């Protein structure tokens, strides 16, 4: 039986995938990320596939590779990770007091198994409370926004500014784990035991 491999160095994704109870290993893909579209759902789908394909080259026959990528989109405009503190300030100022969407793309590839690849994008709406410039600066000073899409982490100190969400909370953190688990439980993962069912 092949291994389950997470093609991501993100500690948050690792944590979320461990919620499935499935054993897995981590192998980060270091390929170049190329987006050929402005559409957020299509962009994260493409990027998740690129990450999975980069790791699939190093995987063994029968292994299942999961690639994922998350972006924040405001009125259809993609916000990735901030380049610096000024960029983080610009992004947070755009997001404060408004609604935006978080998209995570997931690709599941199985090496030399004849199984069709699966790629999907999950969307969650996030409602952000108004923030003053001082509050934005104080949040940036924590260092938390710097490695996150849209310059915030919903599971961190930014939580106090999130008025509510519509959709999968885990998706905003970085992996729509319930939808992914559905695929892994199905034909894409030949785990012999059923984890307590």
Q: What report would you give on this structure?
A:
With 197 residues, the protein is α/β, with parallel strands linked by helices. It has six helices and seven strands; from the N terminus they run βαβαββαββαβαα. Strands 1, 2, 3, 4, 5, 6 and 7 form a seven-stranded mixed beta sheet that branches. Helix 3 packs across helix 4 (133-141). The protein is elongated, with a radius of gyration of 17 Å. It starts with a strand and ends in a 12-residue tail after the last helix. The model is unreliable at 190-197 (pLDDT under 50).
Sum up the structure in keywords.
6 helices, 197 residues, seven-stranded mixed sheet, alpha/beta, 24% strand, disordered C terminus, 30% helix, 7 strands, elongated, single chain
Low-confidence stretches: 190-197
Mean pLDDT: 90
Task: Give the class from helix and strand content and strand pairing.
Answer: alpha/beta
For the termini, the CA-CA separation is: 21 Å
Contiguous helical run count: 6
Identify the overall geometry: elongated
Q: How is the main sheet built?
A: 7 strands, mixed
Round the Cα radius of gyration to an integer and report it. 17 Å
Order of helix and strand elements from N to C terminus: EHEHEEHEEHEHH
| Percentage beta strand | 15-25%
Helical amount: 25-40%
How many beta-strand elements? 7
